[in-house]
């Protein structure tokens, strides 16, 4: 499956946020990359601000342009506020749910666990990172994979009450999606309305 594999620190510096997790380079160089990056940043246009917000969402969730556009179209066709529905669809991706459950330290690591068949949905192995988890479904670690050190290390001390829309079950090393997350349950610093405004112009 296609995904962004370029330099993550460069993207984080461009957006001015550690969207891929803790970033030592960003901590040292908190300015845009390139020869003139350290100079005072120019004020972004309205379009530039909206585009940056879309880029931030895409890189945060590890979604490429076509996937993101399709998710936006789907969000537009569903009931509710389009921007919030878009975030709910992104949060419902299997790789993101695995990450939210604390089974993996990052979304990229969660995607790898999914692709390598370490994750089940309702007891069946699912190796599609973009699979949309629906309320009532249980996402868990495959029985043969529960002893993996990387998974055990991640789960050690993880606070499973952080996300009230997922109910953790220690016996299966997994969680049940109780409902779609509300906007206040999504901690990402994304201004989804700007993304809606961007697509409304296209």
Task: Report what the structure shows.
The chain is of the alpha+beta class and 202 residues long. It contains nine helices and five strands; from the N terminus they run αααααααβββαββα. It has a five-stranded antiparallel β-sheet, covered by helices on one side. The radius of gyration is 18 Å and the shape is elongated. The model has no long low-confidence stretch (mean pLDDT 87).
Uncertain ranges: none
Q: Would you tell me the overall average pLDDT? A: 87
Major sheet attributes: 5 strands, antiparallel
Structural class: alpha+beta
Strand order of the largest sheet: 2-1-3-5-4
Compute the CA-based radius of gyration.
18 Å
Element string (H = helix, E = strand): HHHHHHHEEEHEEH
- Tell me, what's the shape? elongated
Number of strands: 5
Relative helix content = 40-55%
Number of helices: 9
The span between the termini is 27 Å
Percentage of residues in strands? 5-15%
